[in-house]
Amino acid sequence: MSDDTQAFVRLLRALDEAGLLRDVLIIGTWCQVVYRAHFDNPPELSQLRTFDVDFLIPHPLRITHPLDLRLLMSKLGYKADTALDGSTHFLSKDIDVEFLMPEVGRGSDASFHVDALGINVQRLRLLDRLQARPLTVLFEGLSVRVPDPIDYAYHKLLVSMRRRDKDKIQKDIMTGKQLLLFLSTHSFWREWITPRFEALSRNARADLLNLARKSLPELLPLISHGRHAHEAGDLEL
Known about the structure:
The chain is of the alpha/beta class. The chain folds into two domains: about 150 residues, 2-Layer Sandwich (Beta Polymerase, domain 2), CATH 3.30.460; about 90 residues, no CATH class. The strands form two sheets. Strands 1, 2, 3, 4, 5, 6 and 7 form a seven-stranded mixed β-sheet that branches. The chain has a three-stranded mixed β-sheet with strand order 9-8-10. The radius of gyration is 18 Å and the shape is globular.
């Protein structure tokens, strides 16, 4: 196990012992690490990841056990840092950690203070769909929550269209494409690819169709067929 993965697992264990792991979702490239483990490390899914570990605090805010997160992270060897928007980041030699929340309403450039954790978090658009159908899986002996992988794939494709950095655009597109094509080979997940697409807003569907027609024609058959839709709520597989 690599140093960054070991640090990630230590962090998860500490958050679990503190009672916070059940309240947050792992998002960003590290949820892909969890997906790979859950699906028995298929070669179709990239092993690439960044050193940034992102956790999503769902909205509305529900923290089961209030926690001095700065103190906990300090004991794990992380140094707290403040970004330009006022949000709290935790830095270490192996991984950097940030907690995020979905942006709601008119939005604000300022960070949001989470009293129950004693930190400021950044609020971002498009994160709300990642909390709609959380998936609970076992990872290194822990029950962790990640976004529904289809929702996550669509999220990465939609985010790619808001990027300016060409490298990040290509990584987001690659991630979304790989995940959808892989899931399409599993009968359970293939059944929900189109219903997830149909549940998106009209603008989001139009954006994804334009992207598929322009750059990802192999995805068009996947998002044009399907009959059912999942109900909201946690999945446990």
